Amino acid sequence: MTLDEFVSLSSALTGYPASTLKPARDTQMIAQTLYEQLNLPSNNIPSAQLDLLTLVWNQISGTPPPQLEAAVKEKIIDNLAITRLAQNIIYLWFFGIWYDLSKNPASFTSPNIDHVVSPLAYKNGLVWGEMGAHPMGFSTGVFGYWENVPQLPAIN
Amino acid sequence: MKKINIITLLIGFGALAAYLSSSSCHNPKPLTGSNNGDSTHVTTPLSPVMPFDVTLPPPPQRVLETTVRRGFDLFSWDSFIALCWPSKSGQVIGQFGDNATVWETYKKNYQVFLDSGQKPQPWDIGSQTKEIFLSQIGKTPPEMTAIFQPFLTGPLIDQNGQYCRFEIAMNREMFEYINQHTLYNIEGQRSFTDTVIFPEGNNATKKYGAVMVKASWKILGAGDDTSRFHKVKAIIHIAALPSRGIKDTSYEAWVGLVGLHIGTKTVTSPQWIWSTFEQVDNVPDFGKVEKGKHYNFYNEAAGDKALNKAPVQPWNPGIKGQIPSQVARLTPIYTGTQALNDSIHKLLVAINPRNVWQYYELVGTQWPVHPAQSNTGDPFPVYMANATLETYDQGTIKDGKVVYVPGVTSSCIDCHNGSTTWGGRPADFTYLLKTAKAVKK
Amino acid sequence: MDNSTKQYDVVIVGGGWAGSLLAYKLSSANKKVLVLEAGIAIDGLITNPDENQLETGSRAEFMDDFFMAMAKTPESPYVQNYNAPRPAVLDIRPVTSPPAPEDCADPIKSINNGYFIQKGPIPFGSTYERRGGGTSWHWLGTSLRMMPNDFKMKSVYNKAVDWPLTYEDLSNYYDEAEFEIGVSADVDEQKIHGITFSDGYVYPMAKIPPTILDNTMDKALANVTFDGSSLKVTGTPAGRNGVPNQLKDGSFYDNGRRQCQGNTNCTPICPIQAKYDATISMAKALMTGNVDIIYQAVAFNITIDEATKEVNGVEYKTYDKIDGPSTGTFTATGTKYVIAAHAIEAAKLLLMSNKQLPNGVANHSLQVGKNLMDHPMYLGWGLMPKPVYPFRGPLSTSGIEGPRDGAFRSERASFRIEIGNEGWNWPAGAPYNQVIDMVSPLPPDKSGKPTIGIFGSQLRKNIQSVFTRQFRIGFLIEQLPDDNCYIVPSKTCVDNLGVPRPEIHYSFDNYTMEGFKAAAAATETIFKAVDADNKTGIPVGDGGVFTYEGVKYYSQGAGHVMGTHRMGFTNEDSVTDANMKSWDHDNLYLVGCGSFPTTATSNPTLTMAALTFKAADAILKSF
To answer: Which of A30, B379, C230, C322 would bridge with C81, disulfide CB 3.0–4.6 Å?
Structure first.
């Protein structure tokens, strides 16, 4: 999977525009940082699974936007051969975390290879902004901001 | 990303940009300096005119890491040259080696925020230059004048065991804003219910914005090549420390400039543009010590066990025989910035081979890349530190590797975003306002 | 290193909360002070250049460890130190009956499984830190005063014991502690249950603004009562920076640190030190030039002059690496000695010092290590009908203080209710666990096989809907001194330096369990009033489970460890007098939350700080 494929697939999986995930003027290079997880040998990604996900994505990536989510649902999410890897891409973006592919992230069994990708990956986790908040431990708010209702990001 | 020859893209943007990119047939009007009757004339493309705001290439040519960064670095150098330009008219920067500078005619924070809390004297360059009183020994994220603030991250001690001193000055636009809005004392800030918004520099309207300058100085002494420093005579203050028999004293000494922050509020960069310069002999890059070189804040023989760690307590400049700080730069200067430094150093040498300003280098420029995106506007580079001003906040070293920590590792904009007035309101990215005192009745 | 040749006015064991405050006050009065800190140094708080060769930590390093931690527990920023180990919330598991024998032959492996030797029947749920600054690194910041009746449990409610001092005795010391910590609060709002303030008193800073959740709860609960107590919501005094106040003397308060930016991370670590921690007072102490501090110095024995019965030395072991061997044994000597080493570690040290006195130092009363108490916490969590936008602001800004006192205290435990601004982060691992449940729900067989979840716009909508409405409340439940709750040095398990680990016996009496029962009922009342969907269930930290009247409850540690060297009226039933001076040894003081005879319901830090200043005054007067 190339970086461009990773970004466009990530956009379909997360519901965020590719330009948000990888802005033209990219100060923190989060897309690159997360993408590197797919090539990290210690993550033990079965190459057949990664190849299949890439293949399937390339088959459906040209789907017109209104039908794209349905296509992703049918071809990727409902496909037990690749859905777990797709879920991990979602987790990368929402948490900055890579979960052991061989386990369910909810199971908490150890040992595992779950890990936070980097402090910047954590800080840029999408889940925080989605709820109108900031990553715990990194706020750019000013004193007292918490009195005011935040604006939630628009969902298309 | 394909490397683009940035220099050729920059024709026509700002004085330096124009010069650096010019061929011989396309030269901006050179500046000429003379020394009151001396027949020596100096010609240089460097300019005493401060830029209002950054000038960037047209949008299609904007690449963050190269062309945009170069635009901001040029802004930094243009500002530095103009600020360090001789305050005496008719001279060119470094024409006689060293010179008293324009920024040293700015108002110091203690001339604006008076101990009495009273209204400061009006802007008058003549009276502002008279005193240089250096009492600050600790660099903290907020510019606090008192020595025993708990937020101190530690003093910087040079190879002679002498503490560095810090001073802060502001330009007229910033001063007038503070003056007009009675922000020069605590009571005034507490009754100020508006939002603090300092003036913004603007290329279109040719208006200057607020500029603040923060300088770090070392006391010149053994081992220092004084020809490589901008130097002034200053009053050095030592606070009392009874437990060590140290009395409150002041004395005169020559000090050399080792670091200079320039913060500029502009319309493109409401989170300000943060430029930082250092004297070239300050510190080595981490892991890249030049054998045999005399550094201001690094001693090859001392080893790296206490590298970038705060000095031993108690912190008082009067204590004899203190262990020097052992400092390395954790983020090397970006290669494009370094290339620009080299170009400008050549221009400075052309004015005078003994030009003292050739010994100062731009360490970096931080600016908000997406100003409207958040309070901090997506700063780039993400981290930036001056080895003499954010010595102990440059990052940490873990298993021999440099680790940066969001929210803790020095980032001008991230930190200054937390500045507030005495009324608890956002202070528009300056901790200066918090140095105000109460009105003495 | 060996400081045995140097004589100090005061030797303090512990560089945490009480040790730092004491060092500051004593050194400011020109006393020569030595601090022995078992854990690693903090950058900038070093007096011996050699310390820079040892292990030092900094906020940046702690933050990095926090960011990289999978489980962001209170301990996550602070690496375990096998030579000065500390407990961790992840180690709290139910204790079997009888307790399983501990396999502790390999100290490091065994400590990785939990530092405490838990004998139950309920595991002790609270934790602490051993390093410069101590547990102040991850305190919440809550700085409530105790109420007058809290000092008089015996005389008012015929329960437990009275304190050997009253609210009035402590009032000025509260002022002093609030100034040093830098507390943000509103005087009028804090005048509850008989709490009074001196004329014209103002807190150093104005109260921290409430969150949207606080205001929502306040609106719904203003006129609601539970068991006769008002459930009115009030701002919680906080040791974090708000807007400076003009003080009684006309000056404006300033501590030089930033105002709170609402990082929602007070525990485990404030990234910008807007929240006070004890390193601030220690820095001021060191700047006087009157204090030496030795890190990586683990006190293990207190020696007594047989003739005078006074303490004449503290023996300590040093080490270079946090998992390395001991590098030497030394003795620190001074005129006065203070043990300020945390309630559990202090009691352990006193009991370990049994070579000259078989029951240990300062233990004529046999109360050392006894009366171990906490504010066991009951958590309730739910979903609001409308967004309240949690995960913003300080972790807690308001609370419900009405149920802290009332006639019911002769029957059941009182409690205060903390309103949490971090959604279900504490009880249910938010946001991680709920997002995982959306994206890759656990299959019914709980295996690791793939399951199908939601993604894209649906995922985003669900996140917005769920996480903006999450909230939790936490009940800090009173606990009385109890013979069944105590700590002793383990006879079989030691840390990496060979120092015994704490063996803990812990349980809840009916008084406390009735408090849990009331807390569960109060949760129903509150959730009904705010129209919330009650989602209280099994929390992620489920080790503190117990059954009372057929109902299962899950208790959490509050981190408020109290009672192990309590103050009192006589040397027969208490360890120290009201100045925290040992009844048995004239030059020995025991300072910290271990001094508390009863727990009350307020987070104990502010009271502990006030007591510390009281002890400091007594020490200064004794010279």
So the answer is: C322
Q: Are B208 and B201 in contact (CB under 8 A)?
A: yes
Cα–Cα distance between C439 and C450 in angstroms, integer? 11
Instruction: Please give the class, per CATH, of domain C7-622.
Output: alpha beta
Q: Is the N-terminal amide bond of A111 cis, ω within 30° of 0?
A: yes
Predicted pLDDT at C291? 98
- Nearest residue, CB atoms, C391 vs list A105, A115, A136: A136
Whole-number Å distance between alpha carbons of C26 and C15: 14
Q: For residue range C229-287, list pLDDT tens digits in order.
A: 999 999 999 999 999 999 999 999 999 899 999 999 999 999 999 999 999 999 999 99
Q: Which two tokens stand for residue B282?
A: 């300050």
What is the residue extent of each domain of chain B? 6-435
Q: How far apart are CA C300 and CA C330, in angstroms?
A: 10
Confidence at B131, pLDDT banded by 50, 70, 90 = low
Q: Cα(B397)–Cα(B287) distance, rounded to whole angstroms?
A: 11
User: pLDDT digit string (tens) for B236-290?
Assistant: 888 889 999 999 888 889 999 999 999 999 999 999 999 999 999 999 999 999 9
Partner residue opposite C455 with nearest CB, options A90, A109, A141: A90
CA–CA separation, C51 and C131 (whole Å): 14
Q: Is C446 on the interface with A (CB under 8 A)?
A: yes
Closest CA to B362 of B280, B304, B277: B277
In which element (H, E) is residue C110 found? helix C107-112
CA B28 – CA A22 distance, rounded (Å): 39
Q: Do A144 and B424 touch (CB under 8 A)?
A: yes
CA–CA gap between residue C490 and residue C483 (Å, rounded): 18
Would you say the C-alpha torsion B119, B120, B122, B127 has a positive or negative sign?
positive
Q: Which two tokens stand for residue C172?
A: 């000025």
Angle, in degrees to the nearest 10, between helices B69-83 and B335-351: 30
To the nearest whole Å, the CA of A25 is away from the closest chain C CA by: 24
* Strand B273-279 versus strand B360-368 pairing type: antiparallel
What is the interface size between A and C, counted as CB pairs within 8 Å?
187
Rounded CA separation C438/C399 (Å): 32
How many other C-beta atoms can be found within 10 angstroms of the C-beta atom of residue B371?
A: 17
Q: How far apart are CA C534 and CA C101, in angstroms?
A: 39
Q: State the average pLDDT over residues B170-182.
A: 98
**Residue the block writes with tokens 């999986």:** A13
Which chains does C contact via 3+ CB–CB distances below 8 A? A, B
Q: Do the Cβ atoms of B311 and B157 come closer than 8 Å? A: yes
Cβ burial A40-64 (10 Å sphere, 16+ → b, else e): eeebebeeebeebbbebbeebeeee
Distance (Å, whole) CA C556 – CA C536: 14
Mean pLDDT across chain C: 96
Between CA B325 and CA B128 the distance in angstroms is 33
Q: Which of B68, B375, B404 sits opposite A140 (nearest CB)?
A: B375
DSSP structure string for chain A: --HHHHHHHHHHHH---HHHHS-SS-SS-HHHHHHGGGG-GGG---HHHHHHHHHHHHHHTTS-HHHHHHHHIIIIIT-TTTHHHHHHHHHHHHHSEE--TTS-TTS--SS---EE--HHHHHT-HHHHHTT---TT---PPTTGGGSPPPPPP--
Residue C376, both tokens: 């066991």
H or E, element range at B397: strand B396-398
> Looking at beta carbons, which residues of chain C come within 8 Å of A16?
460
How far apart (Å, rounded) are the C-alpha atoms in residues B304 and C617? 43
Assign 3-class secondary structure to C472-501: EEEEEECCCCCCCCEEEEEEEEECCCCCEE
User: What is the pLDDT, as a whole number, of residue B441?
Assistant: 79
Amino acid of residue C512: T
ipTM of the complex: 0.98
